[in-house]
Specification:
heterodimer, A: 114 residues, mainly beta, seven-stranded mixed β-sheet, four-stranded antiparallel β-sheet, 0% helix, B: 109 residues
């Protein structure tokens, strides 16, 4: 009964390094999302996907890329990490929109860029 | 005006008290409404969906007022374990979920 799983849980990078965050869901959800959350701020949408092979930009997409090659996985990439990308990253998934479909969240990746 | 607005608090209440939070939203076409709970930088967890007729889950009651465009959450008999940030979330029927910045609740012994 895993739900939404994020790996890794913690990571420290140096400025300029690259990395990929993995999100996997086992609920057969069509929609997947990547958010970041900074201290004192709400969740901000980075990128989202409405189905396998499709991705779209959210409100803060700069510096990030995503891919959704398989329905159950949504990858978030940082090509050249910057200190401003230090944050907690949450992945979420949801069903196709009908009425009242909530999002389900992974437990987050805490990323520090030095 | 923010799309979803919440009083950031903190609301400091004694154990056993009743506390209520409101959340206003700007998009009159909003279709689905939720309350999430978030503990200290952990992931948001769904507390309850909010239905037009209002709904209750144990000590928690949620109400929706479409005319005035707000939703509310009432917590009765507060427990220490209720201390958290409560997030109001609104969906417009598409991929888009709009989150409030949250209301902090601290229940005091």
């Amino acid at each position: 009964n895993a739900g939404v799983t994020q790996t890794p849980k913690f990571r420290v990078l140096k400025t300029g390094q690259s990395m990929t965050l993995l999100c996997a869901q086992d609920m057969n959800h069509e929609y997947m999302y990547w958010y970041r959350q900074d201290p004192g701020m709400g969740l901000r949408l980075i990128h989202y996907s409405v189905g396998e092979g499709t991705t779209a930009k959210g409100e803060v997409p700069d510096g990030y890329n995503v891919s959704r090659l398989k329905k159950q996985n949504f990858l978030l990439g940082l090509e050249s990490a910057a200190p401003s990308q230090t944050s907690v990253y949450f992945c979420a998934s949801s069903r196709l929109q009908g009425s009242g479909q909530p999002q389900h969240f992974g437990d987050g990746t805490r990323l520090s860029i030095l | 005006r923010k799309e979803v607005e919440q009083d950031p608090g903190p609301f400091n209440v004694p154990e056993g008290a009743t506390v209520a939070f409101n959340c206003t939203y700007s998009n009159s076409a909003s279709q689905s409404f939720f309350w999430y709970r978030q503990d200290c930088r952990k992931e948001p967890k769904l507390l309850m969906s909010v239905y037009s007729s209002g709904n209750e889950d144990g000590r928690f009651t949620a109400q929706l007022n479409r005319a005035s465009q707000y939703i509310s959450l009432l917590i009765r008999d507060s427990k220490l374990s209720d201390s958290a940030t409560y997030l109001c979330v609104v969906n417009d029927g598409t991929y888009k979920y709009i989150f409030g910045t949250g209301t902090r609740l601290k229940v005091l012994a």
